[in-house]
Design brief:
Layout lengths: L2 H7 L1 H4 L9 H8 L7 E4 L5 H8 L4 E5 L2 H18 L4 E4 L12 E7 L7 H14 E11 L8 H12 L3 E11 L2 E10 L3
Parallel strand pairs: 1-2, 1-4, 2-3, 4-5
Antiparallel strand pairs: 5-7, 6-7
């Protein structure tokens, strides 16, 4: 890479967009070994979480429907590859057609995408999750507390009904950090 190209990528860091600045929840869950193996991030945006996890050694794929966000994520990935020798992959992907990815994952991260879907779309999403996650794999879902679920137990019940009885709850909590309050659930595919 020549100096001109290298300089063109530096504004990504200079503008405060740091490829190593993931969600604090992702950092916490990775430290607790609830994120492991191959990772898919649904709705990855500009890629900070997937890039962080790939830096920890987890092969990571980020998908998004926004080509603008993916462009930024790919620029950061190229910068990270040059600086650290590792990077995440990014590509367009529709969360309602996860089975089309043609890959399996040990961990799937969904930060706030699930609840934007209608009940019928949630069924398609659940079908896709069951096709792409390995037995013993973890699914992390987050939702705003003012969303359609008023308690974690109602969220957990609905999600397990959609995914199937082989799924078990690993964690179901409220999270406060970085100026945000939301609920999250970690489920494990008990099929195996």
């Amino acid at each position: 890479m020549n100096n001109e190209q290298s300089t063109s990528y530096d504004p990504l860091l200079d503008d405060g967009v740091n490829p190593e600045n993931p969600s604090p929840l992702i950092v916490e869950l990775a430290e607790q070994d609830l994120i492991f193996g191959t990772v898919l991030e649904i709705g990855c945006g500009s890629g900070n979480n997937a890039l962080y996890l790939s830096g920890l050694g987890y092969p990571s794929l980020g998908i998004d429907t926004s080509m603008d966000e993916l462009r930024v994520a790919k620029q950061k990935a190229e910068l990270m590859l040059v600086r650290r020798g590792t990077c995440a992959r990014f590509k367009p992907g529709n969360p309602l057609h996860l089975y089309r990815l043609g890959e399996k994952f040990d961990t799937v991260l969904d930060l706030f995408d699930f609840l934007r879907f209608s009940p019928e779309e949630q069924k398609a999403y659940a079908f896709g999750i069951n096709k792409i996650i390995e037995p013993g794999g973890n699914l992390l879902l987050t939702v705003h507390p003012k969303g359609i679920y008023t308690t974690n137990s109602s969220m957990e019940s609905n999600i397990i009904n959609l995914l199937g009885s082989n799924w078990i709850t690993i964690r179901n909590e409220c999270y406060s950090g970085n100026g945000s309050d939301f609920m999250y659930i970690v489920l494990q595919n008990g099929q195996g």
